[in-house]
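Worked example 4.2. Below are the chains of a multi-component assembly; read each line carefully before continuing.
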Amino acid sequence: QLVESGGDLVQTGGSLRLSCAASGFIFSGFRMGWVRQAPGKGPEWVAFINEDGSEIYYVESVRGRFTISRDNAHTSLSLQMNSLRAEDTAVYYCAKGDWLDNWGQGALVTVSS
Amino acid sequence: VVMTQSPLSLPVTLGQPASISCGSSQSVIHSDGDARLHWFHQRPGQSPRRLIYRVSNRDSGVPDRFSGSGSGTDFTLEISKVEAEDVGVYYCMQSAHWPYTFGQGTKLEIK
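Applying the procedure described above to all two chains together yields the following structure tokens:
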């Protein structure tokens, strides 16, 4: 099970931190990712992290603004989002594996001026 | 890698077959030789759910009326006999090359 939290309404230029609590599987054995879906659009990969956090990738549009991290001891995944823009408005999903075999229910992030 | 699905809208009569195509702008064969093409289904108001992984492997609990095929840059998701619960949007996704990318989605509706 994956449960996201931290979604909110934030002003343009602001910051937000999303968290994902994982349970029911061996968290440290899986790559994880954040995938977002803007209103009425298809999903978009945002960030990827490997099992021990030594390999991290970002989509170009968030590189330098977002930071993905994980805490294997507490089976949690995080996404720190800075310098938020209107185009970052989306439902953000925490997802298991780079083949996305399980998704959370999503956290809504709304960026508005 | 750009993923292109067709059709974007798919009206289907209950009990009839349906087919969705997904093309990639380059091969989705990973460096380990494995084809990294997957299919997802999203019902309105719900999170996406994976149906098929690595081209043709059905996920646990996915009815056998769903099947995936293809190779290289051309892939297909087929539903042998559409049921009411199959409505929603279907996406293909490649995980061979970062950034992993999704198709635009195909909206299946019942005629």
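Take a moment to check your reading of the output against the notes. The first strand of chain B starts at residue 3 and ends at 6. Chain B has no helices and eleven strands.
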